[in-house]
Design a protein that fits this description.
Distance between the termini: 13 Å
Number of domains: 1
Largest sheet: 4 strands, antiparallel
Order of helices and strands: HEHHEHEHE
Length: about 180
Amino acid sequence: MIFQKSLLQEIGIYQYGLIDTKQIIFSGEVRRLCEGNVCRNYGTTWACPPAIGTFDECKEKSLEYDMALVFNAKYNLEDSFDYEGMLFGHKEFKKVCDNLASLVKEKLTDYLLLSNEGCIRCSNCTYPHYPCRFPEKLFPSVEGFGIRIDALAKSANIKYINGENTVTYFGLLLY
């Protein structure tokens, strides 16, 4: 097995589960939230719609793979209004995704890594005027692909909510 629990924990993954990609629930409603610019990333980054393709294209691209590693990381907050703590967790989760990408590129020849929300690698994204500066480090948005993260967590038998005064971020490695 290419995913050793100790290695995954070492790179910052809190929980994970393996699923068949046929278990992924795609939702036009989730994608419409992106298109409604709920998170303010729509049309601003190569990691989010419309840059990542249409809902149908994202679904088709995901289903080209057989298996998926659903993973998360949990970060403690001072309280439920700790916005700075949430931003810190988001930034740290992007590092977890970088670590996972480094780990799997040695073991897999074909994979797609999706991360939560948009990309925060550059202070100003080149979208839509110039190509991405770091396409090999671009992890498209799970939500942008129209994937229901709550259902994804359930399919992988991991928790969607991990306790009071915590924030949990999710990623998906398709292979």
